[in-house]
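Quick illustration, no need to memorize.
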Amino acid sequence: MSNNQDKNSPSNSDIFNAATIVPTSQDSSDRTDANQFFKGKVTKSLFALLGIVALVCLIIFVGILNRNDKDNNDNATNTDTAINENIPAQPTNSTAEVPTNNSTEENILEYIKEYIKLEGHTKGVYSAVFSPDGKKIVTASYDNTALIWDAETGKELNALKGHTKEVLSAVFSPDGKKIVTASWDDTARIWDAETGKELNALKGHTYNVISAVFSPDGKKIVTASWDDTARIWDAETGKELNVLKGHTETVWSAEFSPDGKTIVTASFDKTARIWDAETGKELKALKGHTELVRSAVFSPDSKKIVTASGDDTARIWDAETGKELKALEGHTDWVYSAVFSPDSKTIVTASYDKTARIWDAETGKELKAFKGHTDAVSSAVFSPDGKKIVTASGDKTARIWELSDDSPRN
């Protein structure tokens, strides 16, 4: 024992061997003091040990709870992302499908998947449409060309070269044998869809031509221009037949009705207008948008018109009365285009917010939004059978999206 250690205090060996201490001739009070010291030390040690064990258990328990919460939040986030964005978290050309809300009452589309990316243009792609048989796609680009693609494989088939400035529109004729393009070189041009040969040039506009489409019978073409007019042409001869005057600013699009009797135009003057396709007389003005109107098209049954605008909305109108029926609100930036599905039940819109969205044409409710493009989406249209959508974007690509066969379409 150390010289300066209190002889009445227990040594280390006394503490650890207290249970075997044998009584000696020491005063009983000394033994009592030693036992009390021991008991106090042991009690404190036990409480300290129990406290440590309890603390460790608590830390482990809290850790498990936090991990479960994180897993649940991650699962919820992933599910919400799949539902709200409706795009596959997968590489291009993947065939995996992304499940979404299973409610057939709320969703017309069960799955949407991007399965082909059309890459070949060197600048932004402004429009993309299917051929009447759905086997081909034609795209128009700021690189002054239009390209023809195999809609099944995504292979580039032909290039239409001849415009000297940006090409903003390219569409097939109803029989699929020709293509008409519109360009900032102030012309529209007609091409052989099989060979890519230029057949005719429509000249008469005094400023950029932005859109050009065939009539349902393929005999006429209507064009829209920055010269504030739309013009009707003979598709065979290229002769100008009529000029639609009435808009006070750029006419961005012009489309025939399914029966070919009327034309609807969209303008930067914030209106869409309906015209008699034979006489060129203005029949009605659709007013309601608060910013420029980028596109206007009829539904396949001719009963409605949908417009797209710089006020971030698309709007549905009664084609007969011109009355606004619904506003499609959900995009966060300009809506470039809006078109009906072949059965007239849904509408797909394309926006500067880099998304395309699908809506219920009757209720105006947003059904799905899907992403993938990295720049503004300038057009989105259904395939003739309604099972696919092709989008065009400033990211230099067009993309084909497949809508699953087993999705409820009412």
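The chain has two domains: 1-85, 112-403.
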